[in-house]
From TrEMBL:
HTH marR-type domain residues: 37-169
One record GO biological process: response to stress
Pfam families: MarR
Record's protein name: HTH marR-type domain-containing protein
InterPro entries: HTH_MarR-typ, MarR/SlyA-like, WH-like_DNA-bd_sf, WH_DNA-bd_sf
Region (Disordered): 1-20
Source organism (scientific name): Nonomuraea cavernae
């Protein structure tokens, strides 16, 4: 695996990429059908893609990109739990997480240490360079957030962040497959009808 180097503050742009439009319209009702405009999935997808496009450019120099940033953020804040717990929380495959931490460790941004609570586990902690890189990236990612949330007033931004946090925490604690199956059963309690072959 090739050795990577940590992101330097001067290698990360201070502003959002030029490819992102400066002005964000207050409404898209003129170009999007009303039914789609009010669709939760469509709205979440558009906002998510807009943020990811900017954020990916800002953390491109970091090993692992956006996922590397999430690991670095957790390591810099010394979140409890070992490497496996961190992989589960971030929704990253354990094998992928191992390689990702290896890259960050080779870049001098994180290090593995025995967990005092359970020495069988390894905690992932940021080095001094890792914390400095994380702090620098945090300030730059604020530009991405402000750009995406530009149509909202200051109090609306705070409320949006809080509501989104509540949704994220709840979604994270639920089993998506089990929850989805239960919801489908509630909406359509009738047993599924057997499908007939196309020949019939």
């Amino acid at each position: 695996m090739p050795e990577t180097t940590p992101a330097k503050p001067d290698t990360v742009p201070d502003t959002v990429p030029d490819a992102v439009p400066d002005a964000v319209p207050d409404t898209v009702s003129d170009t999007v059908p009303d039914a789609l405009d009010r669709d939760l999935g469509w709205s979440l997808g558009v906002v998510f893609r807009a943020y990811v496009r900017i954020a990916d450019a800002l953390v491109a120099e970091l090993p692992g990109g956006a996922r590397g940033y999430q690991v670095l953020a957790a390591a810099a804040q010394e979140l409890p739990g070992g490497q496996g717990a961190l992989a589960q929380r971030l929704g990253i495959d354990k094998t992928v997480m191992t390689y990702l931490i290896d890259d960050l460790e080779q870049a001098g941004l994180v290090e593995r240490r025995p967990d005092p609570a359970d020495r069988r586990n390894k905690r992932v902690l940021a080095t001094a360079d890792g914390r400095a890189t994380w702090t620098s990236l945090c300030s730059r990612l604020e530009h991405a957030e402000e750009h995406v949330l530009a149509p909202l007033a200051a109090d609306e931004r705070d409320l949006f962040r809080e509501l989104l946090r509540k949704l994220a925490v709840r979604a994270h604690t639920l089993d998506p497959v089990t929850s989805a199956c239960e919801l489908v059963a509630e909406l359509d309690p009738a047993p599924a009808r057997p499908r007939h072959s196309a020949r019939h």
